[in-house]
Amino acid sequence: MTTEDDNAIVKTIATLAQNLGMEVIAEGLETNEQYDQLKQLGCEYGQGFLFSPPLDTDGVQRLLVETTDLDSILGFEDFGTDAVLANTYPM
Hints:
Blueprint: H1 4-19, E1 25-27, H2 32-40, E2 45-47, H3 57-66, H4 70-74, H5 81-86, E3 88-90
Parallel strand pairs: 1-2
Antiparallel strand pairs: 2-3
């Protein structure tokens, strides 16, 4: 989100989804600034390099073995490993 136009578009999409009772997933997050802005707009989930690069099957298995308590490390205890497997994290 680099311009006011970008911000307006994202805000409109997030508001529309929320008004329709949908959850909002922000994709392509790379910076903490983007995370903070999107969280303020009401995005419930985020996906992108900020959380993890894309993983192949072996990468997912290594992630699960090496970080047995990833959800609590990230503060997402209530969301379980489905979030890890999808590389989509609550905002």
